[in-house]
Amino acid sequence: MQRFQFPVVQPDPALEELREDLQTFLKAERAAGNFQPEPECWMASSDPAFSKKMGDKGWIGLTWSSQYGGHDKTALERYIVTEETLRAGAPVGAHWIADRQHAPMLLEHGTEDQKLDILPRIAAGQCYFAIGLSEPGAGSDLANVKTKAEKVDNGWKINGQKIWSSGAHISHYMVALLRTSPADGRNRHVGLSQIMIDLSLPGVTIKPITDLSGDAHFNEVYFEDVIVPDDCLLGAEGGGWKQVTGELAMERSGPERFLSSYITLETALYQLQGKMGSDSHGRLGKIFANLRTLRGMSWGIANLLHQGISPETEAALVKDLGNRLENDCTLQVRALLNDLPVKEWSDEMRRILNIGILRSPPNTLRGGTTEVMRGITARQLGLR
Ligand SMILES: Cc1cc2nc3c(=O)[nH]c(=O)nc-3n(C[C@H](O)[C@H](O)[C@H](O)COP(=O)(O)OP(=O)(O)OC[C@H]3O[C@@H](n4cnc5c(N)ncnc54)[C@H](O)[C@@H]3O)c2cc1C
Asked: Is the CB of 365 inside a 6 Å radius of any atom of ligand 1?
């Protein structure tokens, strides 16, 4: 049985300077009315103009080389940027996924031409990516993917459907997990590959799906005889399963897994200043103790990623605990607000809490369900 690793990260004054720069920028943008803070902002709140400003500031593409438009910084500096933008509920959804997982994937598997063309545009906050994993019938059981890529002269022909593709309607590319050859008997992990698809190509149809809050931030994406060139195959043909597993560790471990509802908590704290009953102090203490612990675990994972380690199980644990905390945070804020008559709530409080409640249910699904996270953790502990 392997032990979990969550290395402690020591405070670094240089990182705190970066944090202050971000806080100043975000405060000014909010005061100028350039964004209204929202819970789940990395998933459901997108503004290409805001992404471009983040790019101009050098806050996208922090970890990759300046040769490809990046900024030669560390995973820990990137962590500060993600933490502060989430805390502020800023509209970072457009660039979030490309910066988090597809740029590192292109760095590892892309051709030199792709790196020189696409990475600088991602770092400038002007090129967005969608994740093409789920299909009807292939969610938790991801190996059941049926969308096919067939080899044709100089490329691949793609047919099938993806679902729940966050941000596909504003994205330039999707990286999709596709079946490129049949499964080997019961081993369905073979024959899957990752292919980058330009979403403006003929044969691609994107249809929005509306969530409980009335927003349409995810989509169904259909492919009908879509032809992509050979070099859109990312990594090894048939090696898609292994690649996706590594990518999911990056996807599951970040602060977006426990800070998505922080803005709801912070707004409530301003509302309740001097008006809180003694019950509320205990509730708040519990939330902040949990936040602090999860932050330490998530920082530890950023540190492992910085060392080139892919901590799949630790990431599953952070996602499971973090999702529970995010949902609990919204529920606890509702309870805390019992200390204040509804007519005294600010419009901002009402707006943020409404959005937070309506966007909470998917937290335990997106990026892998709670049950699946617990299965991964149990396997690591030798319990399955
Ligand atoms: C807001 C949001 C955004 C998303 N964005 C994207 C995206 O950008 N790209 C993308 O590809 N996908 C995306 N998804 C899809 C997401 O990854 C899937 O919803 C998730 O993997 C679950 O798959 P499913 O919906 O098919 O549910 P199912 O897999 O059908 O699960 C249904 C229920 O059965 C349980 N279950 C299933 N298998 C097991 C098991 N082995 N053991 C115990 N319980 C089990 C699940 O925990 C769940 O409760 C998004 C989803 C949401 C809600």
From this structure: yes
Q: Does the Cβ of 166 fall within 6 Å of ligand 1? A: yes
CA–centroid distance, residue 164 to ligand 1 (Å) = 9
Residue 193: both structure tokens together: 């590959």
Q: Establish whether residue 169 lines the binding site of ligand 1, counting it when its CB lies within 6 angstroms of any ligand atom.
A: no
CA–CA distances in Å: residue 34 to residues 28, 38, 105, 167: 9, 13, 32, 20
In the chain, ranges of CATH 2.40.110.10 domains: 131-239
Do 115 and 66 touch, CB atoms closer than 8 A? no
Q: Say which residues have a Cβ less than 8 Å from residue 356's Cβ, sequence separation at least 6.
A: 39, 40, 261, 264, 330, 333
- Atom 43 of ligand 1, residue of closest alpha carbon: 371
Fold held by 13-128 = Butyryl-Coa Dehydrogenase, subunit A; domain 1 (1.10.540)
- Where does CATH 1.20.140.10 sit in the chain? 243-380
Closest-CA residue, ligand 1 atom 37, reads: 140
Which residues of the chain does CATH 1.10.540.10 include? 13-128
Residue 174, strand partner residues: 130, 197
- How many residues comprise the chain? 384
In this structure, the residue with its CA closest to atom 26 of ligand 1 is 139
Say if CB 373 and CB 316 are below 8 A apart: yes
Nearest-atom number in ligand 1 for the CA of 361 is: 53
Residue pLDDT, tens place only, 204-263: 999 999 998 889 999 999 999 999 999 999 999 999 998 998 788 777 878 888 899 999
Closest CA to 319 of 358, 380, 364: 364
- Enumerate the active-site residues: 251
pLDDT (tens digit per residue) in 105-137: 999 999 999 999 999 999 999 999 999 999 999
CATH class of 131-239: mainly beta
Fold of the CATH domain 243-380: Butyryl-CoA Dehydrogenase, subunit A; domain 3 (1.20.140)
